[in-house]
Amino acid sequence: MTIAVDLGTTATGEPAELDLEELLSTRLLVQGNSGSGKSHLLRRLLEQSAEWVQQAIIDPEGDFVSFAERYGHIVVDADRTPAELTRIAGRIRQHRASVVLNLEGLDAEVQMQCAAAFLNGLFDVDHSLWFPMLIAVDEAQLFAPAIAGDVSDDARKVSLAAMTNLMCRGRKRGLAGIVATQRLAKLAKNVAAEASNFLMGRTFLDIDMARAADLLGMDRRQAERFRDLEPGHFVALGPALSRRPVPIRIGTVETAGRTGRPTLLARPEMAPEAMADLIFSSGAEDALPAPPRAARSTPAPMRELLERVSAPRPEPESEDLRSPEDRRALVEDIFAEMLTDPEAAFRPVPILYQDFLVHCRLKRLGGAETDMPAFRRRLSLARAGVSDEDADEEWQGVIQRSEALPEEMQGVYLMLARAARDGEECPDDAALARAYGSHSPSRGRFLLGFMADRGFITAEADFRGNRVVTIAGTSWRASQRGNAPKLPAAMEEARLRRAARLSGQ
C-alpha cells in the first residue's frame, strides 16, 4: 500500500503529495534561507506522516517539542552522558517510540556530540529492530559542516561520521534521513549527495542557487527563480515527489514552534522619565526574597532505627516525660553538633560513639543502651545528610541496598544517593574521602570505582568530561558542574568490567 503524505498544493492547484514508502528508500534534502519556511515544511511533513511511521527529530532549537502534546512524541533532553543517549536510542528502536531529541541550550560542540551518540545508538541496534523510521535533522549544516569551524576536530569528525552513516548506510537499517539546511554550501557534500528527493526554497547567494539548480537538473538561467520564491513555496523533485521540478506551496500545520516570523508591535506609551526609572532603578524583581525555611515536620518512618538510638534508659527514680518525637529531635541535634567538628570525619567510630553516649547522658536520653551497630548505621545516615523525614519507600530501598556494602562505605553511598535524589552536584573526591574518614582524595576515587564495579552505581562522563553518577535501581542522577575533574580511568575500567560480566550472564 502506498501512503501519500499531503504537503500542500502545486501551482495549478493540484495536491502536492509525497510517497512515504518511496521516501524511506531514497531520503530527502530540504534547503532554504532563514525565513523561507523550511521548518514549516518539516513540521507539515512530520505531522502528516506521524500516524504511519516512527519518527526521531534532531531539534537544535527546541522548536519541535510541541509534538509531544499533539502526537505523543517523547522528548529526550540531551543533558545526559554519551552512554545514556546510546542506550536510550536502542530502547527507542526496540519499542518503536517517536521522539524529539531536544538540544536547546547546549553549545554547538556539545550538540554535535549528543546528536552523534544518539544517531549511533539508532544505527547500531540488532538486526531484529530494523523497523522503518524517519530521522529528521533540522539545521543539518551544524551536524555535517562542509568545513571545520569553531568546534574541535574530534567533535566534527564524530558528528559528520554519524550523519554520513545515516544518509549512506541508514536505508538497510530502516533509517530514512531528512536533512534541512539553510545553505547547501555549508553542508558536507557526501551527506547532501545521498539524497534523491529535493525541496528547494528561497535562496539568494549565487553559489547556493547554482548547487540547487545542479541538483534539480536546471540550467543556470533557471536558477534565478530561487530568488523569487515566497516563504512556504518550494521546488520539488525526486522519485517520492515528482519526476520533474514542480513548484509547490506548503499547507498549514497543527502544531507551533517556539519561534516564528517576527511581527511588528507598537512600543508602550510611556513618558521617557518613567521609562528611565524602570531601566535604571532596581525593583523588587531584582532581588527575590529567599524562600522561607520549611517548618520541621513530624518524623514518621525509620522508627525502628531511631528507637534503638533514642530509647530511654530505665531509671526507677525518675520518668522521662518527653515525647518520642522530642527525643528523636534531640538525637538528631546531637549528631548534627558532633559533625560540625571538622575533625569528626577523621576520628575513629568508637571514639565518636563514646562522645555520643556522653551527650546522651547529659541530655538524659538513656543513650547507654544504644549498641555500636545501630550507632554506626545512624552515623552513616547523618554523614549523608539523611534523616527520618527522608526515609520514604524509595529511600528505604536504597538504604536496604546499602547494607550489602561494608559499614564504613555505607555513608558514602548514601551521600551520593542523597545528592542524586535532590538533583544536587555530585560530591567531589575530597568530600567522598572525608565521608569515609580519609584525608586522601584518591580514596574517594577508589570508593566510586568499588561501588561501580559491584553494580551499586554507574559512574560515567558527560560530553564535557564531568562525572555523572546514577544510583542503580533508581532514576537518580548527580553530575559535577563547571571545571570538574574527568572520570578516572579506573572507574571507567570498572564500568566496562561490569558490562562485560553482565553480557556474559
From TrEMBL:
<protein>
    <submittedName>
        <fullName>ATP-binding protein</fullName>
    </submittedName>
</protein>
<keyword id="KW-0547">Nucleotide-binding</keyword>
<dbReference type="InterPro" id="IPR002789">
    <property type="entry name" value="HerA_central"/>
</dbReference>
<dbReference type="InterPro" id="IPR014588">
    <property type="entry name" value="ATPase_Atu1862_pred"/>
</dbReference>
<dbReference type="Pfam" id="PF01935">
    <property type="entry name" value="DUF87"/>
</dbReference>
<dbReference type="InterPro" id="IPR027417">
    <property type="entry name" value="P-loop_NTPase"/>
</dbReference>
<feature type="domain" description="Helicase HerA central">
    <location>
        <begin position="8"/>
        <end position="68"/>
    </location>
</feature>
<keyword id="KW-0067">ATP-binding</keyword>
<dbReference type="GO" id="GO:0005524">
    <property type="term" value="F:ATP binding"/>
</dbReference>
<dbReference type="InterPro" id="IPR008571">
    <property type="entry name" value="HerA-like"/>
</dbReference>
